[in-house]
Amino acid sequence: MEELYKALDEVIYYITDSKEYKLCLELKDRMSSNSDINDKIVKIKKLQKEYIKSNYDEAKKQELDKINEELLKIPIYKVYLDNLEVVNQMIDYVKDSLNDYFYKLFNE
User: Fold this and answer.
1) Nearest CA among 39, 66, 64, 42 for reference residue 53
2) What is the DSSP letter of 82?
3) Are the C-beta atoms of residues 7 and 79 closer than 8 Å to each other?
4) What pLDDT score does 108 carry?
5) Phi, psi dihedrals of residue 29, rounded to the nearest 5°
6) Which residues of 47-82 are buried (b: 16+ CB within 10 A; e: fewer)?
7) N- to C-terminal Cα separation, the chain
8) Quick check: pTM over 0.90?
9) pLDDT in 10s for each residue of the chain, 108 residues
């Protein structure tokens, strides 16, 4: 069991020590003081809820898409999303590998 914890710690360290993860944290911190980004994110969250409650009204979807496009035009946010995607891919890879491992362990 000790080996499992050590291996898991190594995987977590690998991800949290990656340049993408560190850049995500830095950009997230910098974006937290950007009122334009924060206002758009709040508006998107509100519109997402309205969109679902409206039974997927096309007008709400278009408004949501418009604000999303505006947000993606902000360079710091775009860089953040690109790096977040890399971090999420690393996490998904580990998750998939663990799922495969435990599936084989318990089913074969």
Assistant:
1) 64
2) H
3) no
4) 78
5) -65, -45
6) beeebeeeeeeeebeebbeebeeebeeeeebeebee
7) 21
8) no
9) 788 788 889 999 999 999 999 999 999 999 999 999 999 999 999 999 999 999 999 999 999 999 999 999 999 999 999 999 999 999 999 999 889 988 988 997
Sequence-distant contacts of 82-90: CB under 8 A, at least 24 apart: 83/20, 83/21, 83/23, 83/24, 83/27, 84/20, 84/24, 86/18, 86/20, 87/15, 87/18, 87/20, 87/21, 87/24, 90/14, 90/15, 90/18, 90/20
Residue with tokens 């009122």: 35
